[in-house]
Amino acid sequence: MNETKSDKLGTMPINKLLLSMSLPAVFSMLIQALYNIVDSIYVAKLGQDALFSIGLVFPMQMLNLAIGLGCGVGTNAMVARRLGQKRQDHANQTATTGLILSVIHSLLILVLGVLAAKPFLNLFTQDAEIIEMGASYLMIVMGFGLGQQVQIICERILQATGNMILPMFSLLISAGINIILDPIMIFGYLGCPAMGVAGAAIATVIGQWVGMFFILFALLKKDHDIKITLKGFKFETIVVKKIYQIGIPTMIMNAIGSITTTCMNGILVSFSDVAVNALNIYFKLQSFVFMPVLGMNQGAMPILSYNFGAKNKERYTDTLKLMLKVAVLIMLSGTLIFSFFPNLILGLFNPTSELLEIGTLALRVISFHFIFAAVGLVITVLFQSLGYGTISMFMSLFRQLFFLIPFAYLFAKIGGLNQVWWAYACAEAIVMIIFTPIALKTVKKKFK
Hints:
Helix content is 83%, strand content 0%. The chain is mainly α. The protein has one domain (12-446). The two termini are 27 Å apart.
């Protein structure tokens, strides 16, 4: 049998392979984190109300992303597994199915964005100006969500073949365009009308669509181990089921994050709008710590899935050990930065004295959970690569709904705003203690 490009997933030395697979994804994720935070930095210049409005709709954006990531993770894992099993036709069928599902998902997101934007904002505020700003932002981002959905699925298909470079360029293009257009459309430079918060949304959407066209063209026209074709294509129930079997738990995991942020906003808004802004800023900043680990996970997913399909336990476990070391190192660095330089970081967001006071404590306290999260993130991709996406889903359920929100509510009642932030560390530590032994037993069972 002829060797394909994806065969390196089973032959290249692990250190070199994980580095080559992860670096482009890590760079891509950091660029994505950069343009996420640039939106908030520019919007903060419009005032704290503008920042508050996009903080309130952030959970809905997370839901949008959750759907794309779920479909992408499910397709990625199954394509890589089929390639490891040398089942080329099945790999092609899975990739094409995932691409079509992403288009269907974007239509559902459009409807949700139009119908739910203002009712969602009404849960937190009756200020007409804030509602108008938040709704306009959300309806634009979700109404044109096709760009993001298709871009994610194309990137994950290519990553499943071991190609991490083209997905990196796709995100780089999206981020670059968004960063350039943000000040132009928000403040009205170069003859463009000043559109405020809506301008930030339009800049984001344009970047996503250009990135989508780039990666879609690369997937369809370049030579890859995967061939996308609609000729003679038909949905096969078993393929859709396999994608969703892994993907739906990922969707739910990220959707739970949306629910959790909504609940946290509800708890914090009872103290002040500024507390909500502090949490919103934290989420944008923490992405610079989490994104490198998530990028490594993207690079590791096809390696783990391929070697599980090939039944190579040694390469599988060696990859996991290396991932854990790197994740802990990154997260420890994040904790130190958040602990020692919170004022410097918050200064990017045109902070009031109240935001500076609340935000400084929030960053320092919440960052204590980073080390526990490092273990949780590696365990999550372990379960996904073995086809146990449901267990990953339960990890998120335990962490965010069963522990985080109850702890946050309890701490708010007992100790006030300053104690709420400790809920993150408590929830993450408990989940790590519960699921680490389950992960070890699962690996032993699947390779028995």
